[in-house]
Amino acid sequence: MPDIQPARYDVIAIGNAVVDVIASCEEELIDELQLNRGGMTLIDEARADELYEAMPPAREISGGSAANTLAGLATLGLQCAFIGQVADDQLGKVFRHDMRATGIDFDTPAREGDPATGRVLIFVTPDGERTMNTFLGAGQYLPAAALDEELIASGAILYLEGYLWDPEEPRRAMRRAIEVARDAGRKIAFTASESFVIDRHGDDFRAMIDDGVIDILFVNETELATLTGEDDFEAGLAQVAGKVPVLVATRSEKGAVAIAHGERAEVAAVPVIKVIDTTGAGDQFAAGFLSGYARGEPLTRCLKRGAIAASEVIAHYGPRPEADMVKLMEERL
């Protein structure tokens, strides 16, 4: 067993460093642009420029799945640090400023030259559904050499974003980060991110699950089915639950389930008056859950925190909290 030192950070995350460009649009534009409605599609820079030109008026907000989760955690009072790759350009400066302004330590050096900092073009239809088109840009060139291994070893939980498993260079970096964190006796949390990532790298994910590498696994209902090959939700849970210490499965309006060390808990979704934008719902659910888990709270209370955090973010545009989350948790828990 490693000699476990006191953690400096509650959560350290590795993920895509991207800026979200969000615009409301009608259903017809989704069809016209041949977008994958409700999904996430990786695109190149030329396609990103094409879609940007076709977008209605938009707002720009720093995003990225793991970065969004850290933003939620920071607003809930946890100490966090981020590892991700931006370019030495204006969007890279915006992203770094936004992270630090939220109270998150982010010191990964910027990358010189092309490609540019990544961006996600998000089209939000009147029902609040978001269709994401991601140009990863510099983010897909995060090298293992950019890792601060002392930093990684100082975090109680290392949180990894499945989206970033797709490019080869950051995948190698994350494998190295896992080794460092495990050697330091830390927990590994992993979010599957999207079914297409599981389609491409499911063998890797299943091997990590079977080998006991993952301590906390976040999936949604669709991702669980893709991961296990089971269309039945309960059958999918049963296949994975015994292999990871903590399994968290979200089901949108049907709530969420967590199974930890044989204990099962469920919560309903928290109602909202109007769903404005579902961008970041899963990211903030993970933030809410981890904010309780890191403090040793009971499983049901961790799930409730996740549901509250998700309900806050879907009631406004953008993937990060706008409310006083500490106060919101006090009112609703």
CATH class: Alpha Beta
SSE order, one letter for each helix or strand: EEHEHEHEHEEEHEHEHEHHEEEHHH
Task: Provide the CATH architecture.
Answer: 3-Layer(aba) Sandwich
Mean of the pLDDT scores? 94
Estimate the global geometry from the Cα principal axes: globular
Q: Which class best fits the helix and strand makeup?
A: alpha/beta
Short description:
It is built from 12 helices and 14 strands. The chain is of the alpha/beta class.
Verbal overview:
By secondary structure, the chain is of the alpha/beta class. It has a single domain, classed as UDP-N-acetylmuramoyl-L-alanine:D-glutamate ligase (3-Layer(aba) Sandwich), CATH 3.40.1190. 39% of the residues lie in helices and 23% in strands. It is built from twelve helices and 14 strands. β5 (80-83), α4 and β6 form a beta-alpha-beta unit. α7 crosses α8, α8 (221-228) packs across α9 (233-241) and α10 packs antiparallel against α11.
Describe how the helices and strands are arranged.
Elements: E1 9-14, E2 18-24, H1 27-32, E3 40-42, H2 45-54, E4 59-63, H3 65-75, E5 80-83, H4 90-101, E6 105-106, E7 117-124, E8 130-137, H5 149-153, E9 155-161, H6 168-183, E10 187-191, H7 195-210, E11 216-220, H8 221-228, H9 233-241, E12 246-250, E13 256-260, E14 263-267, H10 281-293, H11 299-313, H12 325-332
Parallel strand pairs: 1-5, 1-9, 2-7, 3-8, 5-6, 9-10, 10-11, 11-12
Antiparallel strand pairs: 2-4, 7-8, 12-13, 13-14
Helix pairs in contact: 3-10, 7-8, 8-9, 10-11
